[in-house]
Amino acid sequence: MDRQNKKEDPGEKKTDFLGELVKKAEPPKKGATPAYSLIQVSLESEYDPSLDGSYYQQIYTEIKYAGSGAFGDVFYVIQNFTKRRYAIKKIKSALPTRYIYNEVRNNEKVGFHPNLVKYYTAWYEDHNAYMVIEPCQTSLSKFVVDKKDTLQETLLWDCLLDIGNALQYLHKRSIVHYDVKADNIMILRKSFKLGDFGNIYDMKEPRHIYRRTVFDSLADATIIDRRERSSVDVYEFAQTLSGIIEETRITKRVTTKLLVILSRMKVLIHTSRPSMEQILNSHDLRPAKRRLEHQLRELYT
């Protein structure tokens, strides 16, 4: 067939687009190079590539291991020159480049909100990727295990308010988290923060740049209705808080008001679930809002 008369296959465009993403995200072979997609970043000026130590070793001092996730390990560090504390996520080198690229890109995309774990910068070095993020003291899952005999219902209300605000912020930006669980909810002093944006879904972008995941199957992949997709986060969040109630001694002290809210968030028909905005406007959250406004919250960590 004459190439000039050949009709363009839409599928070829998708393949080429993905190829460009991977090509753009290809890490350098030697030395340290900034990793970014939407927001340009640079390496610290104190870095000297002529020295033996890596960028990681020259700029940061590792304090202790913080934990691990599906895509890498997290360590608490001190910046050697500013003495500020951070957490650094070392992304597994075995992961395909496109996964690393999406991880960095997703963190850039979510932007800033006080109830989201803050992202600072990232770099590639020796086929590995590193991300600098806000250091939080512990995860909700670990906190619950450590304090399961002394948990109070106020913790659940405070968490509902903070993570609810984080989800409302994401949903208004047409972003679905798709992985709301206790391991991804972090605690920093009196606040709860949502982290780990490796599985977010941006409803404003072409579908073909996202891989199909188990999270995508929760909201029918053939439907891109904003309300339906964001309702997956509402359901997962309610399941997380309900799991804490069931697994701890707090069960006997939980009020009916909280149980009713969680049951509404977990109904199987997504159109019957309230949005996060509707939950936050509930009169039952007023005491939690007053505790936050007047700084009356318990110091959790």
UniProtKB/TrEMBL annotation:
- Tell me the keywords, alphabetical order: ATP-binding, Cell cycle, Kinase, Magnesium, Metal-binding, Nucleotide-binding, Serine/threonine-protein kinase, Transferase
Q: Which SMART domains does its entry note?
A: S_TKc
Q: Which reaction does it catalyse?
A: L-threonyl-[protein] + ATP = O-phospho-L-threonyl-[protein] + ADP + H(+); L-seryl-[protein] + ATP = O-phospho-L-seryl-[protein] + ADP + H(+)
Tell me the GO molecular function terms: ATP binding; metal ion binding; protein serine/threonine kinase activity
Pfam families for this protein: Pkinase (PF00069)
Q: Which InterPro entries match?
A: CC_SR_Kinase, Kinase-like_dom_sf, Prot_kinase_dom, Ser/Thr_kinase_AS
> Sorted alphabetically, which PROSITE patterns does this protein's record hold?
PROTEIN_KINASE_DOM, PROTEIN_KINASE_ST
Question: EC number(s)?
Answer: 2.7.11.1
Residue ranges constituting the Protein kinase domain according to the UniProt record: 60-301
Q: Name one GO biological process term.
A: meiotic cell cycle
Regions of biased composition (Basic and acidic residues) lie at 1-29
Q: Which GO terms describe its cellular component?
A: cytoplasm; nucleus
List every stretch annotated Disordered. Answer: 1-32
Write out the similarity annotation: Belongs to the protein kinase superfamily. Ser/Thr protein kinase family. GCN2 subfamily.
Q: What is this protein called?
A: non-specific serine/threonine protein kinase
Tell me which species this is from: Diabrotica virgifera virgifera
Identify the taxonomic lineage of the organism of origin.
Eukaryota, Metazoa, Ecdysozoa, Arthropoda, Hexapoda
